[in-house]
Amino acid sequence: MNLLKTILDQEVYLALGCTEPTAVAYAASIAANRLSGSLERIAISVDPGVYKNGLAVTVPNTDGERGNLIAGVLGGLIRRPELKMQILDGGSPELIERAKELIIAKKATITCDTERRGLYIVVSVSDGVSTVNATIADNHTNLIFLEQDGEVLFSADPIEESLQEFDYKSILKKMQIADLVDLVEQIDEDDYAYLLEGVRYNQEMSVRGLEIKKVGYYLDDLKEKGYLQHDVFSSSKILTAAAADGRMDGLNLPVMSSGGSGNQGIVAILVPYNVGLWFKIDERKIVKSIALSHLVNSYIKCYTGSLSPICGCSISAGVGAAVAMVYQQAGKNIEQMTLAVNNLISDLGGMLCDGAKGGCALKVVSSTDSAIRSAYMALNNHGITSIEGFIGRTAEETIQNLSRISKIGMAGVDDTMIQIMLEKNS
Predict the structure, then answer these.
(1) pLDDT (mean) for 115-122
(2) What is the pTM (predicted TM-score) of this model?
(3) SS3 labels along the chain
């Protein structure tokens, strides 16, 4: 198994819209594709993480509608599961209107299963004659159960997932940062082209996102008025914020994701790319650094989980970007990479994830700023060490400590946030 290619295939892919509502749409599309008649009813149940991430985010091709429910109903009407994480590209005004009719008639419902942990989506659809149930778990496209009228069509262990999926995560989790650096030296021309494709897609989203006058626009305005310098910090923050603005606003453009998240893909890709250009790093070194950024992001997600109380685009993707920038200028310098990891996690380790929404661009800005600062200090051999707080003796130990804080110390945080969201929604 080529681990680099497997991770790029499983965790780095084009996604249209926020990945959680899109995953709900994908699950609904799988189920509805089995129906002979038109969709008459749909019931969706999601875990708290998916509920949280889908509550306030604008869904592409819905005329500004927000949330998992409209995404799920639209996916059930589109019935093109082969589109996977670009399923919402199949929307049309007619389908949006029909989706709204089903919701208004209360023939489409969504509930939050507060007992579930980890990504878990159950969709039940009916055409009045037949009923189909589909379940996705653990990652956004991992179908684990499909049933029609009581007949099980497909069933898999949600823990084992597919053999390849299980293997690559278990192997990745046992590795160290040094091993990930070795992996990026294996990139071939196909990998190189794919990684550059991600840069182009995310740059395009940034250009479009700057037009909608949100966080990226106002940062750019501050720069134009002289309140921010035109430097590597401001240019990188404007670039990433505008891309996040566009994505959270539901622009009909895909971005290249990382670790199953579009915002993480924006940080993991655009920060090392822009910084590399600024410091005139050779393009091949920049592209390899982006591969390392993806690997580190995925490595951290093995410990923190796909959906957690802490903000992935700020922390795991920010750490990936910081390590990538050290690699650009210092190569396989594990001591400096460790300092970069420690610096960013010390800075942003407690940042909460309260779901996907317009405010994510603010967190992307914080991540971008901290990643560049953390890498710069590390390249000058300054950083937080294990004598402080929860920082470990190695980068890996720091990441593991962060995971413990997220999973154990913050166990009640998600429940509290979900309760607040449910109260607001009611």
Answers:
(1) 89
(2) 0.92
(3) CCHHHHHHHHHCCEEECCHHHHHHHHHHHHHHCCCCCCCCEEEEEECHHHHHHHCCCECCCCCCCECHHHHHHHHHHHCCHHHHHHHHHHCCHHHHHHHHHHHHCCCEEEEECCCCCCCEEEEEEECCCCEEEEEEECCCCCEEEEEECCEEEEECCCCCCCHHHHHHHHHHHCCCHHHHHHHHCCCCHHHHHHHHHHHHHHHHHHHHHHHHCCHHHHHHHHHHCCCCCCCHHHHHHHHHHHHHHHHHCCCCCEEECECCEHHHHHHHHHHHHHHHHHCCCCHHHHHHHHHHHHHHHHHHHHHHCCCCCECCCCCHHHHHHHHHHHHHHHCCCHHHHHHHHHHHHHHHCCCECCCCCCCHHHHHHHHHHHHHHHHHHHHCCCCCCCCCCCCCCCHHHHHHHHHHHHHHHCCCHHHHHHHHHHHHHC
